[in-house]
Amino acid sequence: MKHFKLHIILVALLFASTAIAQQTPAPKQTQAYSIEGATAHLGNGKIIENSLIMFENGKIVFVGSTPMKVARIGEIVDARGKHIYPGFIAPNSTLGLVEIDAVRATKDNDEVGSMNPHIRSIIAYNTESKIVESMRPNGVLMAQITPRGGRISGTSSIVQLDAWNWEDAIIKADDGIHLNWPNPFSRGRWWLGEPATLKANKDYNSQVEELTSYFTESKAYNTGRKTPSHLPFEALQGLIDGTKKLYVHVSNEKGITDAINFSKKNNVKSIVIVGGYEADLVMDLLKQHDVPVLLQRVHSTPNNNDEDYDAPFKLANKLVEAGVLVGLENAGQMERMNTRNLPFLAGTCAAYGLSKEDALSLITLNTAKILGIDDKVGSLEVGKDATFFISEGDALDMRTNKLTNAYIQGREISLESHQTKLYKRYSKKYGNQ
Amino acid sequence: MIKKYFMFTFLLCGFMLFAQENVPKNDGVKARNSNYTAFTNAKIHISPSQVIEKGTLLIKDGKVVSTGTSVVIPNNCITVDLSGKSIYPSFIDIYSTFGVAKPSGKPNPSRSPQYDANREGYYWNDHIRPDQNAIDLYKFDSKKATELQKAGFGVVNTHIEDGIIRGTGTLIALNTKGTNANRILAEKSGQYFGTRKSNTSRQSYPTSLMGTMALLRQVNMDADWYAKGNIKEKDRALEAFLKNKNQVQIMEVGNKMNALRFDKVGDQFNTQYVFVGGGDEYENIKDIKATNAKFIIPLNFPDAYDMEDPFLAKSVDLADLREWNQRPSNPKTLTDNNIDFAFSTYKLKETKDLMPNILKAIDAGLSKEKALAALTTIPAQIIGQSNSIGSLKVGAYANFLITSGDLFEKDTKIHQNWVTGIKNEVSPMNLTDIRGNYTFSLGKTNYDLSISGTIEKLKAKVKSDSTSLGSKISFKDDWMNLTFSTLDTTKQEYIRIVSNVLNVETLNGKAYFPNGNEMTFQAKKKATEDEKDEKNGDSKSKKDEEATDAKKLFPVTYPNMAYGFTTLPQQETILFKNVTVWTNEKEGILENTDVLIKNGKISKIGKNINASGATVVNGKGKHLTCGIIDEHAHIATSSVNEAGHNSTAEVTIEDVLNPEDINIYRNLAGGVTSIQILHGSANPIGGRSAIIKLKWGESANNLLYENSPKFIKFALGENVKQSNWGDNAKTRFPQTRMGVEQVYIDYFQRAKEYDALKKSGKPYRKDLEMETLVEIINKERFISCHSYIQSEINMLMKVAEKFDFNINTFTHILEGYKVADKMVKHGVGGSTFSDWWAYKYEVNDAIPFNAAIMHNAGVTVAINSDDGEMSRRLNQEAAKSVKYGDISEEEAWKFVTLNPAKLLHIDDRVGSIKVGKDADIVLWSDNPLSIYAKAERTIIEGVTYFDIERDAQLRKSIKKEKNELTTLMLQAKNKGLKTKPIEKKVKAHFHCDTNF
Questions:
Q1: A202 to chain B: which residues are within 8 Å by CB?
Q2: Three-class SS state of B87
Q3: What is the ipTM of this complex?
Q4: What is the CATH number of domain A90-375?
Q5: Are residues B823 and B898 in the same domain?
């Protein structure tokens, strides 16, 4: 027996020191909990001081305040002085599709070909990614795993970030198709000696036309006998019957306008603008058609020298004030490892106009609505998944974003990672922990 | 065919006025023309400042014999009466590639980089080609010569536009009728330089502007060493360079910043370059003036953008809009500042665009005299040929223009361009103006003829009674041909008229009828009142138009772009009251405290301070800190990497500062006041850094720290072994970490030997690279080394210890936490990212706790950006250390202020709020570590470079100015002026691995 224990310890040590295995996913919730005393940020703009939140079997069963006279269930957790937030959702993410940017063998985000609606990201999603586990200590607990490249990149799926495999991780499979809208600007081919400036893209119209005819062909195919089969056309059917959303990756005013008209003309049920750097210039159109925006990385510099230095910081506020439904996304350079900074993107939006609770919605309930998963997640409301976390302070500020507990579907997940292990190991080396 | 050939030869001989006496002649008798030609009654511009009304120009044998009002005309003289005409010296273009094709084709087709030179027996770098002579490639180009003659040019100095040192030019008279025997005025005329590499070689070095500057310095030093006989082998390039030293040195720099940069290189070797500028000199005219250089200026004033598509139009920067408005005023600004400049056709799309652009410059205030000087006397003087070209003084070449009037009036025509005494027709001189209304009769029929249109393109209307007859007219060399249809419209038959016009009042000639009959033709001119009125009316409306055209000149700002200052902000005395002060000193964070800044320094800190004359700022609820210092930045520079060699200690970022990077302003808005601009990480031994203050609006020199500590960038790991550069980059040493160590040992060993030789007093070859490395060994220059994994970090410390010096800073240092104890022992600091990782294999073990562990172990820790976006949020990056590793807020704040100041050896001046230190401070709306904090005011040495309220004003004025300029451009398009399609300049953020 003693030997057996030793073995377990040795095995455990081995795992810890070689850091091969990732965090073991937490088992199904068997024990109910009642969390008392925390400031609950519900994600829907509301806040409850001294809250009481109870959850069992993976679902939230009660949201109220501690002084309320209701029977507590299960174990009582004292969270006085702390803050509770719904789990943050990272849309338009390539988490788990690439491990190391510079190592080609680890890249599974970009398939060859231009029209790839049938390509499904979910099957390549690596639950054991070291980067995925490093999201959780910052409160990012869910993500939309999105393929990149081409004109139509493929189909995304939404996952939670504590799972044994991609099947277990799914919150919503094949939620939408991602389209990279043609750019009205094209860049000079500097390697051929052309100036590296942007010019009007002469091919813009024909590129849009190509898309239109692709959608028309697909419609014809899907109303017919579908033989011989055409996988890409079949994949597009979901856009028409409303089972999939069309995520249009586009930044500029003209492109957004054209993309919205395009989707209406082609009977696409639900469209989302991803990027939207110039969405503030077409707010009326967005509202008129109820088109939400997943706003590009807030921490970026303005596109032009003349723009306000804080233009990207205050954009979300502008859109929210106008009544547009806005979420935040983080695509771009080093996007995977940077996704853990998602809460701070929202924090910046709060510094530049939004209230803190509205800023929180940008990465919780708004995003859940945009992705079509708000029936399950996105806010602390009864009946939704118990996917949330407890932080010592304001989770939108890096100074105070310190998680003590996190839960996904009621399961208390590990907040350790490859990185915290190294931290502990080397702190011990110098005896300064 | 043979006949034609003979004719041609004959003609050619006829023009060879100056055929040499030693040339045998077999096609006739030796007939040498020694007649004089006199041009009388002309307004003669002998030079821009010397004008003779109704004078005579006497020439012989291609040269000016005399000029004046009382010139004695010899007997054997042809006299040309030029009443009403003007004479000007022909123009000179001294930055020309006339008749010299640019060498093309790179001999080495391999895709791998080439490190060695193609040439043997020349300098080690193929892009140094002083041995080239334009004369060897020159081939007279008749077509181009005619084009230039038409534009008014008589002489060009041509050269081989290829390479960094391009060798000598050649002075050519554009004499289309002569031979090279009389066209080549000077075989070697000027030595030319450029900033781009030769087309003939793929040799990598230099890949950057700073590499080009370093190379130019080293060539000068090596030439000196060669001249002293210290190089045993023959170097034809250095020999030529030494020979060409007495020539004027003309350097194509292309813009104002490069002119300032290369002037410094020139100063170092007592060389005053003549700069071929970019037309943007007015933007920084004081510094341009201070170079004492003469300039050659292109006249490619930009067209207006086509702003009709608002989607595209909004992407054009204010700076680019302004260019269109301001550039034509550049020549005037140069004149106002007494800077000598010559005009050139360089960069003009077509030669004929020259005069319209000069007129634009005159419109913008350039005097005609200076315009003429820029085309004649100044280029002649620059090229050292004032006595023979550029003016019509006695003995000079007879290169002159005959014009219909003032050269710089819109309607003036150049009639003839005489080059070395030979006439070239440009446009007919005595064009008869036959426009007007005439009557004539043929038989019994009376006709009215009305001739209108322009002199070059006439229109005719023929009427008989009230019937209009279809007609065509042509008029050339005083012969008029008129064709019109007969009155019988059922037939398509025509009457033709030919008239040799000797008198415009009466046109005499012959009419030819369809039936073959001929008849005398005579048409008489009738003067009508209507016509006169019409003319007057025309000129009036034209004048009106010109008056409303009077252009608004938009003011130049510093820098000349959005958010630039019209006048630079001044140092102030400011008293901050009741503010929370983060001192970074043992006093810690002081609440409700006053801080006085005065004379650019922090003057007092305490409670209830009073200061007369100080501007008082209420700091209640706000936080005051010293400015943020970024140890690792790549903004505000035009180059990042010199990647052509594995060691480039000879290059320095100080050479290539770019004070007009908008990121300077954006960083100020993020509370950053000082940065170290590091060389990139393309090689184990990189280039020297620049440590600057973000004094937005100041010129490059004023950004640098006075007596700046000296730094150099080293780099380890994947970048220097080129792991991620693709399969072609597998030839440069080192390709492994093992090799990297040997690079260092080799270079330091050589530096040690170099230093020993230098100190011994024996002669030594001055080597810029070795000089820098010696500074390191002698602890005068500090290393900031790009580093990732522990093995290489450890290695470099050991190498340094072997050569008895210390590494100053490991930058990035993502595995510093693994060797923090060794770092403390060595005495090296760490400047790291807050949370970057996973982008390369070598950052697999990078953890956000790195800063905390190193700090706890006793390392001086800074958090840096290496990124133009993140640098403006460094306060937040510091705050991450509170999250990752529980560093106290006070210590975390030091990670981006005092600690980088210590690492940069500038903590005696900046990095804390302490009496006597520079007043580089930031007023924050909130706790500076909070994501909710905004910098409201950023001050450097008492000068407010960023103010959130002023920023709001600037936004408004930028919008207003852009709208005004957009409207002006739309108007320009409506008027029919040329426009160009929208182009958006894009600038990427530079990182360590940016490759130039």
A1: none
A2: strand
A3: 0.94
A4: 3.20.20.140
A5: yes
